[in-house]
Amino acid sequence: MALKRIQKELIAIRKDPPPYCSAGPAGEDIFNWRATIIGPTGSAYEGGVFFLNVTFPKDYPLHPPQVRFETRIVHPNIDRGQDGHICIDILRDQWTPALTISNGGPFRTLSMCFLNTDSRSEL
Question: Is pLDDT larger for residue 104 or for residue 71?
Answer without folding.
Answer: 71
